[in-house]
Structures are given as structure tokens and as C-alpha cells.
Design a protein that fits this description.
This protein has 249 residues and is of the alpha/beta class. Helices cover 34% and strands 16% of the residues. The chain has a 5-stranded mixed beta sheet with strand order 2-1-3-5-4, with helices on both faces. Strand 7 and strand 8 form a beta hairpin. The mean pLDDT is 89.
């Protein structure tokens, strides 16, 4: 009897969590209220702590500007300006995924949600996208770990460089992961090349290459069918038709 009762309680909790997650997602994707994004900076070593502690909301404001600029192109001219908040830095990083099977991916997602529950306020975080932004020392020829944005739970883990010179490019990466939390899919191939036509900023231009901007989920500006460049920031990015549909615009 006790075992049956425990199973029943667990099932009720799972149903409540699933219902809350779905309701939260539908609420955000209705776009009836300003999108709320909470950015939690995290220093990955002592050398980056001073940089992280001086970050403010204005360092991320071009994310909201970008979304407000792109919205009218897709019939969202009355979209409330997103609210981007820079939160107090967190002392410990979230769990990071490794090489993942499906089961491992699910386990990591659950660990990340538990981390978010323990390190961020519960009630005030409802309906808010939470992005854990991990700041690494700037080193040339260093590849950062892969960033992740999860639609379930509306959580993201973003790896960037702790450098003012990189801030605009950091915001491009943060926005890419933000779009994942809203339902957008990657639009680049295994080599990082934007996929035509959905990964191109302007798939109707002739000639097709070079493109002069990057589609936010394509990740890069396509110079040719085989070559692309990382944009310097959100001024060089757009939200394409497929991404707009995926996030509910």
C-alpha cells in the first residue's frame, strides 16, 4: 500500500510539472506580454570574476532591441519590448552535458532543471526564460564548449568569452540559445554552414551569395555555399521565415 501511495504521489507530481511546463510555454509563446529573460552570469575561473561582477542589464539590451526590430517583419508590430534582466552572478556553474545518448540527454535536462530550481527564485521565474551564461577567459584559437537552449523548462546554458570586445558577439550567441528556448531549431549543417534556404538571411536575393547578414539560427553569414563567417553582433543578424514560424510569430 505504501509503495502504491508513493507511486501515486510521484505520478501526480509529474503530471503537475508537465502541466505547468506546457502552460508556461503556451503563455510565453502567446506573445501577449513582454518576453522576460533573466540572464545569470557565471565566472568560470577567478580571472573572469571581476568582469562578470560588473555586468549590467545595458550590456544585454541589444537582445531586446533585435527582437523588437525583427518582430514587425513577421506581423508582430505590436510586440511588447522584451525585458532583459541581468541577475546576480551565481557562484557555481550548472551541470554540463557530455557526449550524450537520448537517455543521458534526458538525465542532463532533469539535472539542469533541478539546478535552476535550487539557484533561482521559483514563483518569480514562472514565464521567464532563464539563461545561465558561462564566461570563459579570452584565449586565441580556443573553442568554447557547445551551448544549449532547452524549450522544456525554457532554460539555456551559454558559453561566451569574458571580454568587452566580445560583448556584441556574445549577445548573438545568447540570442541564438534564447531562440532555442522559444522553439526555434538550428539551421546549419554538420560543418557549421548555414542551410539554404532556411538558414540564410535573404533566401530570395540574386545572386544568392554572398549574404550580407546571418539568420539567427543559421549561426553564420554565408559568403558562399561552402564558406561562412561569424557575425560581429546582432546588427548583422535577422530572424528568418522558418525561425519566425517556430517561435510563434
Amino acid at each position: 500500500m505504501r509503495r502504491s501511495r508513493r507511486i501515486l504521489i510521484l505520478l501526480i507530481i509529474l503530471v503537475l510539472v508537465a502541466g505547468m511546463t506546457l502552460g508556461e510555454r503556451l503563455w510565453v509563446r502567446s506573445w501577449a506580454r513582454p518576453l522576460k529573460v533573466a540572464i545569470y552570469p557565471i565566472a568560470m575561473d577567478p580571472a573572469t570574476r571581476a568582469y562578470v561582477e560588473q555586468l549590467q542589464a545595458r550590456d544585454f539590451e541589444d537582445i531586446g532591441v533585435f527582437m523588437a526590430r525583427e518582430a514587425p517583419r513577421w506581423g508582430r508590430s505590436n510586440l511588447p519590448v522584451p525585458r532583459i534582466t541581468s541577475m546576480t552572478p551565481l557562484p557555481t556553474p550548472p551541470p554540463l552535458p557530455g557526449a550524450q545518448s537520448k537517455l543521458e540527454a534526458i538525465q542532463w535536462s532533469l539535472r539542469l532543471r533541478w539546478y535552476a530550481f535550487r539557484n533561482t527564485p521559483f514563483w518569480s521565474s514562472l514565464g521567464t526564460v532563464r539563461l545561465f551564461v558561462l564566461y570563459h577567459p579570452l584565449r586565441f584559437n580556443q573553442a568554447l564548449p557547445h551551448s544549449h537552449g532547452l524549450q522544456k523548462g525554457m532554460l539555456g546554458v551559454v558559453h561566451v568569452f569574458a571580454s568587452a570586445a566580445q560583448q556584441t558577439q556574445n549577445n548573438f550567441v545568447i540570442t541564438h540559445e534564447l531562440m532555442h528556448t522559444l522553439g526555434a531549431l538550428d539551421k546549419y549543417d554538420a560543418n557549421g554552414q548555414p542551410i539554404a534556404p532556411i538558414g540564410l538571411a535573404d533566401p530570395n536575393v540574386h545572386p544568392l551569395y554572398p549574404q550580407y547578414k546571418a539568420e539567427i539560427m543559421g549561426g553564420r553569414t554565408a559568403i558562399s555555399a561552402e564558406r561562412s563567417e561569424i557575425p560581429r553582433g546582432l546588427d548583422e543578424a535577422v530572424i528568418g521565415y522558418a525561425t519566425a514560424a517556430e517561435i510563434g510569430w
